[in-house]
Amino acid sequence: PGRYLFAVTRWTFEAIRVSEQLWYGVEAADGSSRLSEEDAERFVGALAEFGEDWPSASTDIDLDAAAGRVEEGLLVQARDDFEHHTSRMKAQNEDRAAAQVRSLDTHLRQQRAKYEALRERHLRNNNPGLARAQEVNIERLRVRIDRERSRIEGKRQLRCRLEEVCVGVALVLGQEGGTQ
């Protein structure tokens, strides 16, 4: 039982792979304790499912002070955690991009060797039309690989954003009393 401040933020990362996640923060209104992120997620989920409005909240507590505490506490923590997670996501994205470019280069080398071998065979067999078709295949492959490489390079730059989803104050009553 007691009064709690809570905040939920959404983190969006757009790069080679797009991902979103929610961050949850809950702390006692008096600042005496903070829940782990997993417990905070369960707490906010329980509020959403079982909580009721708290009509007298504006007279029971100083909402301006509570908002300031959320801004200076939980939301600062959310931004710090977001920055740490962003660093990890940048490194993962760079690794993914490098792996994809290596894979493209390997594919290009293998396919080019195959087409060139066919071209040489057609030239030896005096089939210049079929040899020319292999040259066209090589050019199409190169264009397709260049286009894919450009797509990957365009996604090397991680775009990220943090959005506040909700903040609030909750009053947790005794076991029979519920949550507001």
Structural write-up:
By secondary structure, the chain is of the alpha+beta class. Helices cover 59% and strands 21% of the residues. It has four helices and three strands, in the order ββααααβ. The protein has a three-stranded antiparallel beta sheet with strand order 2-1-3. A hairpin with a 4-residue loop joins β1 and β2. α3 packs antiparallel against α4. The longest helix has 62 residues. The model has no long low-confidence stretch (mean pLDDT 93).
Brief synopsis:
With 180 residues, the protein is an alpha+beta fold. It has helices spanning 37-50, 57-60, 63-124, 128-154; strands spanning 2-14, 19-28, 159-172.
